[in-house]
Every structure is written in structure tokens, then in C-alpha cells.
Write a structure and sequence with these properties.
By secondary structure, the protein is of the alpha+beta class. It is built from three helices and eight strands; from the N terminus they run H-E-E-H-E-E-H-E-E-E-E.
């Protein structure tokens, strides 16, 4: 078993802030190798305290029809749920549920942005809802639930 102090020291909490380019001043988590390969996905806290997430669609994000792959959308949404919940999460968590509705498609070169809110933060569960847009077009609505965890079991069975 890994204790909370070890988890906080682990790579899971590494954050990188962009110092140039389109996402200058935005942040991303650098320790999740799957997100590193899938993204890059970015987030920032706006002046009003709201969290906004975004990514620029690249060829690697597309399906065979030239639209953003649904799996890519779900990975980005999972990232967004954690970014939106981060101000109240205060430590590690795991996704308990993630659902959404596809409303439109996005293509290579478009900027996909997410906004959302924490609808409830209890002792162990945090509930989030939000939407993805490309410009004024709504692409996806989502909801997710995160469970706060106090320790992570590292052994495989």
C-alpha cells in the first residue's frame, strides 16, 4: 500500500505551465503517460474562478471519417472532470462514472474548449457537469463523478 504522503510526492501531481505558444499560461499534468500520448490537454482558472479546459485538434485525434474520435472526446472529458474538480479535490481521486451525449463533430485544427462546474462535493464523492464547444457549436455535454481516495493499492492480483 502506498500512503498519501508518497502519492503527493509521486509524479501524479506534476504540473507543467506552458511558457509560450497558443496555451501560454495554461497548465497540464505531465505524469500521466496516457494523457501525454493522447493530448496535449490544457486547463486554467479564469478570473471568476471557473476552470476552462482546451485542446487543439490534431490528426492523431481523428477517426476514419476525419472527425474527432469519440474515444478522444471521452479521454478529454475525463481530464476536464478532474481539472474542474481540482479546487475541491485536495488530493488523489478516481473516476467512478463518466457519461455524456455527443451533439456535434469537430475537425482537425479546431479548438475544443470545456467549461463546467462542481454540482456537489461531499466527503468522498465529487459530482461535475459540463460541456464541450468548438466556437459557438456545442459538441458534447457530460457528467462525471470522482471518488476521493486516501491510499492507492499498487499490487496487481
Amino acid at each position: 500500500m502506498q500512503d498519501l504522503n508518497d502519492i503527493k510526492k509521486s509524479a501524479a501531481f506534476n504540473i507543467h505551465e506552458a511558457t509560450d505558444g497558443e496555451f501560454k499560461g495554461w497548465r497540464t499534468w505531465t505524469s500521466d503517460t496516457f494523457l501525454n500520448d493522447t493530448g496535449p490537454f490544457w486547463h486554467r482558472v479564469e478570473a471568476n474562478g471557473a476552470v476552462r479546459c482546451a485542446f487543439r485538434v490534431q490528426n492523431k485525434h481523428l477517426n476514419g471519417f476525419g472527425n474527432v474520435h469519440g474515444g478522444c472526446v471521452m479521454v478529454f472529458v475525463d481530464y476536464c472532470v478532474f481539472a474542474i474538480a481540482n479546487p475541491v479535490l485536495n488530493g488523489p481521486g478516481v473516476t467512478v462514472s463518466l457519461s455524456g451525449e455527443f451533439l456535434g463533430a469537430a475537425r482537425e485544427g479546431e479548438l475544443i474548449e470545456a467549461s463546467g462546474e462542481v454540482t456537489h462535493a461531499g466527503g468522498s464523492l465529487i459530482f461535475v457537469r459540463g460541456e464541450l464547444k468548438a466556437g459557438d457549436r456545442r459538441l458534447f455535454t457530460f457528467s462525471g463523478t470522482i471518488k476521493r481516495i486516501r491510499s492507492i493499492q499498487t499490487e496487481c492480483r
